[in-house]
Structure formats: C-alpha cells, structure tokens
Amino acid sequence: MRHRISLFTLISFLILACSKDDDPCSDTTLIPKSLESEYGCTDTKYQMEIDLAGDFTIISDQANFNALVTGSCLPEIDFSMYDLVIGKMNFTSGNTSIEYVLETECETRDQNLVVTFYQNMTAHAPNLTYHALIPKLDGGQDLTVEIIVLPSPI
Questions:
Q1: pTM: predicted TM-score of the whole model, two decimal places
Q2: In this structure, what is the dihedral angle of CA atoms 84, 50, 37, 91, given to the nearest 10 degrees?
Q3: DSSP assignment of 98-143, as one string?
Q4: Where residue 10 falls among pLDDT bands split at 50, 70, 90?
C-alpha cells in the first residue's frame, strides 16, 4: 500500500511539474475601437482634422482633444478608458479603406498600432486622418504606429 501511495505521489508530482508553463505570457492582438463604433461618428478619415503631417499623436484627455481636433463629430470621449491615437497621411491616389490592429508585447506591455491603408487608382489624392481608441496606456508603456500602404483588394 505504501508503494502505491508513493508511486501515486511521484506521478502526481511529475504531472504537475511537467504541466507548469515556464512562460505563461503571450502577445495579444485586438481590433481597436473607433469614434465610429463607440460614438456614431461617420467618415472621420475625411471629416476630422488635426494639424499633423505624416505623423501621429496620443490624446489622453478631453481638453486636448477639443483644442487639437476639429470636424463634424467631436464627442465627449471616455478618456478614463481610452487614449486616442490620431494622425494624418497624405496620398497620391484614392483610399478604399483603413484597417487597424493593436498588438501588445507581453513582457514589456508596449503596444504597436498597425494602420493599413488600402489605396485605389482614382486620381483623388486625399489627406486622410486616421485614429484608434486604444486601452488607456500605463505610465511605462510605449506606443509605436506602423503604417502599411497596400493596393485595394477590390
């Protein structure tokens, strides 16, 4: 009987030791929210303005949003939950759509916002505003924005 208990204890220990994950941390990817999805704004890529050129900024409070952004939709944003990443890009051809993906690196918790512009062959050369509502950044978190320009799949 003792051998069975010892054997059972040894097997249980080995199972628990082997099943322990040495690195429980993993990177995450999510589709960030937008002023369209959260506040009912429309066509913000054309209707929202900020004084930037080929760059972005992070807005963390309503006062800065009101001071920096103009346009047809200026909602009261819940800045206790979100930071607003907003930028401008100028193109030589038309735009079909913009897609956003927010990647968070597990160990550092730094974030990378991937903004993909799908451009078409129309002669309309837009100066587009892009934006994403991201989860509130902590004091030590860094954010980078990666711009990708692709031909429209349509």
A1: 0.82
A2: -110
A3: EEEEEEE-TTT--EEEEEEEEE-S-S---EEEEEEEEEPPPTT--E
A4: very low
